[in-house]
Each structure stands twice: as C-alpha cells, then as structure tokens.
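Exercise 7.
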Amino acid sequence: MNPNQPQPGQPQTPPQNGGYPPQPGAAQTGAQNQPNQYVQPQSYSTAAPQNPYAQTPPQQQQAPANWYTPAPKPTDSKPSSVDDYLQSSRPQTQDPAAGQTINGQYAVDYLGGIAPSAPSNTISIAGFNLTKKMLAIIGGGMAALTLAMVLIFAQPPAEGPTTLDESSLYASYIDTQDILSSSDTSTKHLSSSQLRSFNGSFQAFLTNSASQMEEPLTDSGIDPNPLKSAAKKPPYHDEDMAHNLNEARLLDTYDRVYAREVDFKMQTMHATIQRIRQSNSRESMQEYLNSTQESLETLQEALENYLNSSS
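Solution. The predicted structure, written as tokens, is:
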C-alpha cells in the first residue's frame, strides 16, 4: 500500500504540485535525490477571474494648463441644502467693515462723499452769510420803508402856513400878545409896578416885531396874512401859558407866574432867532433879526433884574 495514498475516511490532501500532474523529469530527479518523496513544485498564483460588473477605478485627471480656464459646471451654483437655498435667496446687505477701502478710500469716507449734503439754511450775498429769517426781516423792512415813502410823497401839500422857524416866530408874537390882552389872563391883574412897566414895553416889542417881520417873510416866500389867524390855533397857540396865567389869577399868584411864563417865552424866541439866522441868509431877514435880537435881550435883562430882586 502506498503511504501517500489517502485512506478511506481521511480528507484528501491536495497534491503539492499545484494541481498539475507530475512532470516526468522532475519526478525522476527527485526520485534520485530523495527516494519516496515528491519534488516541491514552484508556486504560482492563479489570476482571479474579472467581474464584468465591477467599476473601473477612475483614472487621475491631468491638471489643465495655466492658460486654460475650465467652464463652471451647471451644478456648481446649486445649493447643497434647503437652508443654503433660503440663505442665498435673502437680500444681502453690504456693511463695509472698519478699515475697508472702496475705490482707494476708506469706507466711511467714501460713503460720506457720495451721501447727499444737507440743505443749507444760509445764503451768501456779497461775502455775507445771511439766513432765510434775516432775509425775510430785511425784505419786510425794505417793503415797509418803500410803502412809507410812497404814502409821504403821495400826500398833497398841506394848505396854509408851514411850521418853519420864520412862521413860528411871527405867530409867537401875535399869540403872546393875544394871551396877555385876554380878560382871563389880562395883565391888569399885575400888582407890581415894576412888572406893569415891563409888561408895557414887552407888548410894544411884540407888536413892532410882528409888523417889522412881514416884509422879510414875504421876501422868504411866506405870506404873513394866514399866520395872523393861524397863530390862535395849534400848533402855534401856547395853551400852557394861557392855562397857567388863568390859574394864577384865581390863586392870587399872578405876578410870580407872569414873570416865569414871560421869561420862558423870551428864551424860546431868542433860540428861534438864532436858528433863523443860520438857515435864512437873505439880507432883509438878517437885518430884521439883528434889530429884534437887540430889543429882546434888553427886555430879558430887565426881567432878570426883577426876578433877582423879588427872590
């Protein structure tokens, strides 16, 4: 019995020759060297059968050249999820971070440069900045001044005598003489003989001065006739003097009040003469003023003496 032959009931051991029948040369060589043993055959591998349904591993693609830019795939812009789609569909607000530059400028400076400037409330005129309120005030003032000038020049000239200094002085002569001759304010109520003497000289001065002034008035273009009646009315009539003399008569203080009122009246006449001297250069008026001023100053000196002696 061959010891290498499998016995019944034992598993068969595959031959060590790889499943191929023993080669004649190899068996003999082995038999010569080692009796009763098989020569170890050279190992080999059997190629596994290929599965026709197996996927071929992808080959590594060659990198494109630097000058070539591949076209984007249609699926590149496809969102990967619903959240990504919703996020991409929302409007994006650009908020430049601090220090970011736009067109070579910082974001804050750039946005401030393109933002519309606030409307200005000032207007520059001839180098002066004027607000709208100031312009409204100036415009209103000019409109009011223009209206006032139109009304002034549109009025017709007033009839009757004017209120020039010449007219005022002439009317004062007539009005003062009329007050001192009135029954309520008559100088017959004077108790001082010195004042009665002065009063006669003063009334003569009033009459002569009014008469002598008529020719210079005419030369100055002023008609004295309307002034004779206008002297007894405002603005020429001295209502305060008439009231004070009448009240002094009732209070038995006529002498003192008369001296005070006449002294004030002569001071007013003297001041008016000085103004006429400066404004009216006509020869006839200047000659009249010289003579009248001399007579008036003489009367003022006489009254001053009475006031000093009675005080």
